[in-house]
Amino acid sequence: MGVAVIPSAALDRSRLLARHRWHPLWIAVAAAVLSLPLSVNAAERAKELLAKTLALAANANAGGQAFARNCAGCHGDKAWGVGDASIPALAGQRERYLLTQLIDFAELNRDAVEMHRASAALGIAPEQQWRNIAAYLARLPMNPRPQKGDGKSLDNGSGIYRDSCASCHREDGMGDDSVAAPALAGQHYSYVLMQIRGMASGHRFTNVDFDLALMLDNMSAADMAAVADYISRLSAMPTAAQLLP
Ligand code: HEC
Ligand code: HEC
Q1: How far is ligand 1, taken at its centre, from the CA of residue 5, in Å?
Q2: Which domains, and CATH codes, for the chain?
Q3: pTM of the entire predicted model
Q4: Would you say the CB of residue 87 lies under 6 angstroms from ligand 2?
Q5: Which phi and psi angles does 11 have, rounded to 5°?
Q6: Most buried residue, 52, 64, 101, 164, by most Cβ within 10 Å?
Q7: Centroid of ligand 1 to alpha carbon of 60 (angstroms)
């Protein structure tokens, strides 16, 4: 999505980033520019796979069985994740977002050796299983008690969230498919913090453009922790998918 804007945005901001010339974000940008045809191909292929998967009919029951077999061992029986191990909650996450991430792991667009193995275990034509599992997970109730931070900077955290995050992730933290933004409500503090840091260093590139990565990278460690703590306390409300029969 944002790949095409990288060169001009990089020029505009060269002064800003000059203070840390070999910063990981710079290296990621340089790598993205050098491998531009490759990342455009990767994004195109991911888009095609998403369209192909969404065209299949979903079977949430079969998805539940596949989840119990292949995923619950790490993500938990209720898909509420494990805060201490930075394993994300998946229950109640947006269906479309779940699919984009399963595709990104399978295509090696997103790092995480555990998920590369789990993807490979689904076999050579996993589209139907992705469709079923995502349909199952999106309808599960969110984790009502995710792992939280120390609660000492919630005023700061809520200010940052409203000013810089809510436009995409929504005030209530339920996310927005039109900008590919996941729900953050019900998610564990340590996992949220780890992903903010990861996205700030260019680690997730298919749906995170340069401006967003730069905004996250310019946050102090204290601000990142404060906003992650606030996010971990957004109340987990039922999603539209859960209200369907
Ligand atoms: C060996 C443990 C393990 C297994 C098995 C596993 N996962 Fe994961 N999963 C993880 C970890 C760890 C992460 C966080 C990856 C990271 O660091 O970005 C993750 C991340 C994810 C994410 C991204 C969530 C988000 O909010 O972005 C999805 C979706 C997911 N897993 C779905 C599944 C599904 C579906 C299965 C079964 C087919 C599965 N996982 C099996 C460990 C596992
Ligand atoms: C311009 C829209 C936009 C804004 C503003 C934005 N995000 Fe996001 N965010 C996204 C998108 C898109 C993704 C999904 C990235 C992907 O698919 O890999 C995401 C993913 C995330 C994730 C990963 C969640 C998961 O389950 O893995 C976290 C955490 C996050 N954002 C936190 C924040 C915080 C904190 C702010 C404010 C400081 C913020 N975001 C501002 C669009 C946005």
Answers
A1: 30
A2: 3-243 (1.10.760.10)
A3: 0.87
A4: no
A5: -65, -50
A6: 101
A7: 18
